[in-house]
Request: fold
Amino acid sequence: MSVEERDDALKAEVRGVTFYFCSETCMKEFITPAAELGKLKTLVGVGSVLTIAILAITYLPILPAYANNLVLLLLASPVQFVAGSRFYRGAYHAVKSLTSNMDVLIALGTSAAFGYSAVATFFPSFFGTEGVYYDTAAVIITLILTGRLLEHLTKDRASDAVRKLLEMKPTVAHLVRGDSVVDVPVEELSVGDIFEIKPGERIPTDGRVTSGRTSIDESIITGESIPVEKGPGSEVIGGSINRAGYFRAEATKVGEDTVLSQISRMVEEAQAGKAPIQRLADKIAEYFVPAVVGIAFASSLIWYLLGGISVATSILIFVSVVIIACPCALGIATPAALLVGTAKGAQNGILLKSGEALEMAGKVDTVLLDKTGTMTVGRPTVTEVEGDEHEVLSLGATVEAASEHPLAEAIVSEARKRQLKLQALTDFQSFPGLGVVGRVGDKLVRLGKREFMRENGINLSTVDARASALEADGNTVVFVAANKDVLGIIAVADNLKPDAEHAISELRKMNVETIMLTGDNDRTAGAIARRVGIATFYANLLPQEKERIIEKLQAQGRTVAMVGDGVNDAPALAKANIGIAIGSGTDVAKETGGIILIKDRLMDVVGAIKLSRATLSKIKQNLLWAFGYNTALIPLAGGVLIPFYGVSVYSFLPFLAGAAMAFSSVTVVANSLLLSRWRIPSGSRTPDSQVKNV
Reply:
């Protein structure tokens, strides 16, 4: 239900942001989720035990009617007023807000059943019957609490994601003080301090390089799989990894102002601040509750004024309508479909983490895709070798074996895959951001960029045209030279996942627009977008820029799904209507996403949306059944049979209510089980070995 931001509304402030709530229960679940989950488990456990006992005593009575009803009263009271207290609180706040929701219907229906039964227990002559509805009230409360517990058990929590983000920040910094370097806690760094970083270390805080050259793995922030070269004046980001080279930097941001801290804050605020979905049952209840109360009141009044019945019987009519209208199957309508749908998804590598995630996925009309690790494999591999392949790869791998750069790893890996023997290497030198040099036998071998080769007087005219074409197609080109002669080039790229093109094509057939978001450069992003058939892409993005694009699309009325795998995707995953995390990605991405694709296939994005739509359809059908059976009996409770059978008809209405409850529950479960016939879309099982080059 919607909540107005009024001064008298329930509200709580979390990290400077004010949140408004429809009920005290919702507020507590938001502020202290673990404690509330524990309480809910206890209530469901106790309620289930008592409800089973109530059902047994109701349908297998061993005591006289009066004593039997007293025992039922004692057993039902804790269920009604302790386990069911949250429905009373929710109903109170809904009525206070001049609206109605499922809490109002549940509180009204169970209270009518319990209240009528209590009167019938102590004053059976008042209604002229000893029939009671304790079992109806207890079953409704326990089933609906069980449904809510199932939902809460699968809910995502921002705290774990934020904790893992902050763990990526180093705890110690090498602070430069005069001619010495001392290790200090990162918290003691101030803006303007100079710190040094050695190869393999994480950068302690955001800064600007003052001396030295290096290559830095910024995939934690940008998703870019290939390290970025840095030199004096370059910006560096706290939490990223220094792959090669020693350098010093000046701290420009510290503490809560760093990019990593901002990302963790964005994840937390986006997850916590996301407005809860308007539950379909609440939408129905908004109209259903007033209608039921109106029918109940009108029926009792009409029979009292025009039918000449007693006050007691008119009250019985009112209570009967309210009781019969409260659908027990409602408690399992959503959980039953969710259980089958989520189980089916899990069997196929699609983890739906909450009912909210499922509902949003079923409504998606726009899918945003990260590039590195999501659409691509996430690791550079050799795509092409120009020149004498044996000589170029053998010499190149021999020199690169002494380097820790990811491009070097790709070249060495390719040489080993071809079973090429590496030779003896001497005089190795690394020039961060440019290339490497080493002596192999009598040859001085160089590998690196154009400018590195030209600085050393090497003519690239024979390979330059092919190198430019490969670069235009998204490859990173490494030139290989021996002494003063260029031998050839090695093209390295991050490969597309085997099912990427098919997944984009299927999404297009479903009228779902696809957009690529990446921290990579325009050239590489454009090459991949063209290959898979994506018309719109955004490159060179930071995490907060991805968030802004999502906000813009949502402002246009789009229902947005974000698909990503890295820490840099976490804010966007949280900000989107539904986050879909690739299972091979980071824990932060997986915790932030509402759906996890554990088998790392893009076609499973298609599968997740189709499964969600199918499950959502079942939920709607179940709600129709849940309301339908009981609504059909409203005329009977309203007295339509009185002209034929008199007021004695109310002696068997409890059994009709019980039958409707059982039949609707069976129907709901059977309908949900039909989801087990769902099959994952064809094309999702593309073998991992079928990798396409960009």
